[in-house]
Amino acid sequence: MFAVAFTETALGRFLRAVEVYILIIQNLYFVLQNVADTARHSQEEAPPTWESEKSQPRAVLPITYSSRDIQVPRSTSPPFRRSPNGQILTLNVPQRNSNVILAIQSDPEETPNVIPFTPLEPPKRNGREKVTASPYKPSTSASSSIPVFNNALSAPQVLVPSEKRLFPEMSLSYYGMDQDGNRETVGLFSESPTLRGSTVKNETEKVDPPTDNNAFNSRLSAGPSFIDMRVSRSGLPPSQQGSITSLDEILRQQNELDQSIAALRLFSTQSIYSNPPMLEDSRKSSDFSEFKEKLQASGRNTTGTKSPSNRSDFSLSIFPEPPIVDNAPISTKYSNEILKSRFEDGDSEAPTPTLRNAGAARGVPPINVPPPLESGIASAQTGITGNFNSAGTGGTQYDVTSFIGS
Amino acid sequence: MAFIAATLDLSQVIIRGSQDTAKGVGLDTVAGFLRAREVFLAFAVVLLDLYFWTLVAECPRGEMRDQSDQVSTSSDARSRMHSASWNRWGIVGSFLKWASLAVLLAVPLLQVLWRLLPTQRQYGSIYVAESILQTTVTAVFILKLILNVYISPLDSWWHAFRVYLGPMTALFLGISLGIGNLVLCEPIHLNLSSSSG
Asked: 0.80 cut: is pTM over it?
């Protein structure tokens, strides 16, 4: 006598097989679903490479406006293009050549030449990197801290990489300029104070002989992120830019610094052809106050969200595209006299005589406004407050740091 | 393991030949194959039960995604449990958890005794006990899955139930096999003299 259980009959074994088959199918379904979910989540978290590359800020790719060895011709041959008003020379860098260093230097002879491109590794930057404002300090030293822009009068063309800008909608008043190109503030904020300062310092030590710019470099390396821009024309020694190191970060910051210099040159040029600060009305002063408040607010709001690179909202790489300057009448000493006489005659619409007075009324540190000298025809013509350099070359030195960060 | 057991069964059929297999003779020559087959079949059941025991306590997929999305600051341990956790049911849940594990481990041992001992190869006490335990454990697993669906935090009960649809079907088939074992223990007449000799 031998007993056989139900599970060992044909029907029992068939039911057992069906049971196991259902479990196998169930497991396969869940495994495939897990794989699909994982792939979908990974796709959501990390966008495709081409998409992320498209969203990368191309404008911060290294485009260096160097000061010595690369010069741009006045002729509007590609890749340079002159704006319709003939004052702005736009540099067109092809998209595929965005990883090149283009060094453009302010030549004392004002005879720019086309320079070769040097390939460079594009900086690796996370697209989600949060940009924060870095603290800054105002410039307090005397002559070494005063940025000098001597190319304003003699440089009708300003080279700006227009097609690479990321934020063309950014108002120039954000940087102390109104849309007319009038200069109110010329101070710029660096991203990483220590790194940028050390970068400039190292390159200065490598390239240039010891000059009076050492004081400037020491200020940069001391820590404050406030950068004084000094662009010499003829009386000053050449700038410290153009040196290429192997560090991408240094190169990128160097390029941003150069871009800012070029942009400052731009609105320095624009200042010649636009209304001088003495003719600015109270609206522009209020714009400056708003700008200052905006800076302070952004600095407070972003102090808790430091990015790894300690970048700032005021990164020089996102410097806005300079506006096209209208052919405004050139302000001369005689026109200023006329305006002054109108003001003395009781014209209520007369503008604020100087920007310093407007700024002082709002608690803003005044701009150093020396009385116009007889030989300073540039200063007299433009009405821009400035200092003459020690070399006596007739160039104009513009204070770009006086009232930022107070 | 059931596949290995089936392979061993097929092997003994090939060894004996079709004629001896049809006559039911020559079992003594394949006794080792038969014993190994019975052991593998017994432990195949326990592995299947262990899979069910793990499955009924796994967090459902929908709840897993929801819990990963939220950051809970609650200190209530029960609120952090998923619906399939045995601990949600307190002492009863914990008891059922470990009792079911013990029972499903005991089932293959009883099966081995029933299958290998010639005196127990009948509708005896061991066979009945093993069939009852197997059916009970399967019923506990089905009940656990139903409770998982019942307390599931998902919006629709169908979303929770469809996850358990396959295992529930398999468990219903398993409980039907256990009931079939209790109801039907078909005695067959074999030429034991040839097999024992």
From this structure: no
